[in-house]
Automatic annotation (TrEMBL):
Compartments in which it is found: Membrane
Protein's recorded name: Hyperpolarization activated cyclic nucleotide-gated potassium channel 1
GO CC annotation terms, alphabetical: axon; dendrite; HCN channel complex
The keyword Transmembrane helix is annotated on this UniProt entry: yes
Keyword terms of this UniProt record: Ion channel, Ion transport, Membrane, Potassium, Potassium channel, Potassium transport, Transmembrane, Transmembrane helix, Transport
Topological type in the membrane: Multi-pass membrane protein
Span of domain Ion transport N-terminal: 53-95
Sequence ranges assigned to domain Ion transport in this UniProt record: 97-241
GO molecular function: voltage-gated potassium channel activity
One record GO biological process: sodium ion transmembrane transport
Organism of provenance: Scleropages formosus
Pfam families: Ion_trans, Ion_trans_N
Amino acid sequence: RQDSIQKNNMGSQNIKEHGNSVGFKGDREEAMVGFEDLDGASRQYGFMQRQFGAMMQPGVNKFSLRMFGSQKAVEKEQERVQTAGYWIIHPYSDFRFYWDLIMLIMMMGNLIIIPVGITFFSEQTTTTWLVFNVASDTIFLVDLVMNFRTGIVNEESSEIILDPKVIKMNYLKSWFVVDFLSSIPVDYIFLIVEKGFDSEVYKTARALRIVRFTKILSLLRLLRLSRLIRYIHQWEEIFHMTYDLASAVAFLDMGS
């Protein structure tokens, strides 16, 4: 009888140990799956980061080859962007090209819609008008930040300056104030302040004057015309340089 009891105890102990080993194995497999998911997510994030970083560098295409002369020069410029600092944007990169294109469309829209809205529409707080102004102001503020991280072209030597400190100081001394005034929603800030401090007695009497003043403040957005002129000037310089380089190469080919 004692032998049978011992056999039963040994059997139950073996079952318990087997269950523990199976449970440990299952936990280990779940942990491995979790690590694999984490590793896959990190690889995907690294891939996206590399792709986005590549967009901020000049690509090896016809335009960059004409600007820098050879593929080695383009690759050297790509290395300069990588070592320049965090989130430095090359002015000849694909990212900056498409962003400038978006900004040109936005600026043309602003220069048409804002004067028409101020002149022919008395109500400046409709949902459509608010959405348009908030969206455009946000985009222009993003552009303001990006200008602190975009390389500049030295007009004398045609060298691309990628030093973050030089870029920042150059922008602060040149167009920052104008861009800042044209980007912040001064008219809406004024309306919020007035609504917060006005009493019911003065609100009706001052309503017309406030509306007129906010319309005048809305005209500050027309300072974005300076950005439009600058962007067009930059594109003219780029394509003019490209045309000059192409003409020089064609002339050399004819001479040889």
